[in-house]
Amino acid sequence: MFACDIICFLDDNNVVQHFEFRSPTGTDNFQGMWSEYIGKPITSFLDIELNSNSGYANWKGTPFWFTKSENVMGSGFILFMTGGTNNSKIYEEAMDCISEGLQVFDRNGYLLFCNKESERIEKMDRTKIIGKHLLDIYELNEDYSTILNTIKNKVPVMNRCDYFKNKNGEMITTMNSGYPLFIDNQLIGAMVLVQDVSILEQYWTKANVFEKYLSEREVDRRSRKQKNYYTLKYYTFSDLIGENEGFVEAVNLSRNVALRDCAVLIYGETGTGKELFAQSIHSASNRKNKEFVAVNCAAIPESLIEGILFGTERGTFTGSSDRMGLFEQAEGGTLFLDEINSMDLHVQSKLLRVLQEKKFRRVGGLRDIECDVRILSSTNEDPLFCVENNKLRRDLYYRINTVTVNIPPLRQRLDDIERLTHYFIEKLSYRYSKQVKGASGEVINTFKSYDWPGNVRELLHVLEYAFNIMTGNRIELFHLPKYLQERRQEPSAILGPECKTALHFETLEQLMAEYEKKVIENTLKHCKYNVSKTAQVLGIKRQSLQYRIKKYGFKTTQ
């Protein structure tokens, strides 16, 4: 923006007759650029409301304050325009620092400014789009545009989810809030705040941090360590979803022992939620206001795990320093040893000593350190199998096995599949800013017929995959990963539970005929009644299928 005072003489038809420039800076530039406008209507190059005697005008993103008066020396009007001093560069730098996307449009829908976060979210170079109209930047319906509705109705449009295509043809999902901009009750444009999933996740994390801080300060403001104010909230028993009898039994047992400060061994396959159980026990215990420290024993090299658990003293080995171990970090709280069966037997013997004597030494240290830590541990294999195969010391097993919680795998919780699916869809809808209403019956049946080797974690990842590729508001079979779609097409999956009830027929011939009829009927539905495709899936000739279709009276498409 130039600091320039401009006097513009107009005739009765608002055509420019003459310019005068009164500013010591920018005069030459303006004279060169504006001389071409002489003889043209002022509205052809300046966004101005001539029905007002004063207000703001806009020239290529540069605002001017104008005052309009009659030309007492002749016909027409005179406009006095002042650009004023400019702090816009400072404001632009400041807006580039905020975590949300921000765009500013004039009242006709032309982009005046967008910050760096907006560039990132919408994957466009702002230098190539500033000055262009909104509909030239995005492929969207004018009636559904947040910013155009804000300008049209002159009222804010709040928290609106938009799904649109940018200039580069990429589909973008955002949550937008538009605000009209007024100066002296005159609409001069609008701004929009743009959020994507990453920004919403940042807010969720910040909210958890602040909630944790307020909760801990309220419980014991003076005794809490400051570092704990910034610790994220742990899972609780209310986060454990399921009504399966075996699962509910595991939850109730965990809830009962949470306050008893005893060692707990959690047994479950990978992905069943062992750490969720451990965090829930900690959250319901008397140690809930202290640290919860988790370590995956399978992910740490054998040469490092002892130092990580117990800490090190300076000079123990080359490059070593005085470093606190996990036992010291968890002092007064809970230490969760995940997949303890993967821990080296030598380290297991040292761990047993800590559990028995409530003290330990750092690696290379000479003094004992007292510790008050509750031990929760887990295995992804049967604990007794681990003992028999020398993966877990028998004496350590008896020490950590005061109570054993068995989490059933997902294949044994088929009655929880639908509940978990809807729970995860609700959570993912919030994370991805999508309004997904649920999953089709075909998807639920596919889930219930699958073995889920990755358990609940795999179910979550399958649904997250669907969220990343879907465009509608319901998850269908074709949104699932290929391995689940292909499995659904197997004959055993196509038969359906109806065939299992066919045993009431009197003869084997009747039973086989009904069985064949049901297989063909279900396969035809799956293949959208395409004869050739159905024959291919069933592995029979097309003529043979045509005979059976005629026999059972099915309708098809050729």
Record keyword descriptors for this entry.
single chain, five-stranded antiparallel sheet, 558 residues, 21 helices, 37% helix, alpha/beta
Short description:
Helix content is 37%, strand content 19%.
Task: Explain the overall architecture.
- Mean pLDDT is 82; it is low at 222-232 and 491-505.
- The longest helix is centred in the middle third of the chain and has 24 residues, at 197-220.
- Helix 14 (417-432) packs across helix 16, helix 19 (508-526) crosses helix 20 (531-538) and helix 20 packs across helix 21.
- With 558 residues, the protein is of the alpha/beta class.
- It has a five-stranded antiparallel beta sheet, with helices on one face.
- 25% of the residues are buried.
- The chain is 37% helix and 19% strand.
Helix proportion range: 25-40%
Strand order of the largest sheet: 2-1-5-4-3
Distance between the termini: 69 Å
Tell how many strands the DSSP assignment holds. 19
Number of helical stretches of at least 4 residues: 21
> Which class do the helix and strand fractions yield?
alpha/beta
Low-confidence stretches: 222-232, 491-505
Q: Tell me, what's the shape?
A: flat
Rg is 35 Å
Average pLDDT reading: 82
Largest sheet: 5 strands, antiparallel
Strand content: 15-25%
